[in-house]
Specification:
The protein is mainly alpha-helical. The chain has one domain. 79% of the residues lie in helices and 0% in strands.
Length: 63
């Protein structure tokens, strides 16, 4: 159970870092927004948060 909690926390952290780098980085970039990187970054962030939420939600189960 502790391993699942740690895995969920790690994936949340990866999602937060990806959000900062890929999404916010595109917004504050002096070269403008690259729509492809912005979109893929947003999809990756949402995927990380959903995955971490599901791992955290099922943390008490053994399967």
């Amino acid at each position: 159970m502790k391993r699942r909690e740690n895995l969920a926390k790690a994936i949340y952290d990866i999602g937060k870092l990806a959000f900062a780098a890929l999404v916010l980085g595109q917004i504050i970039s002096p070269q403008g927004v690259n729509v492809t990187i912005f979109t893929l970054g947003a999809i990756f962030v949402v995927t990380c948060f959903i995955l971490a939420y599901n791992i955290d939600r099922h943390g008490g189960n053994n399967g």
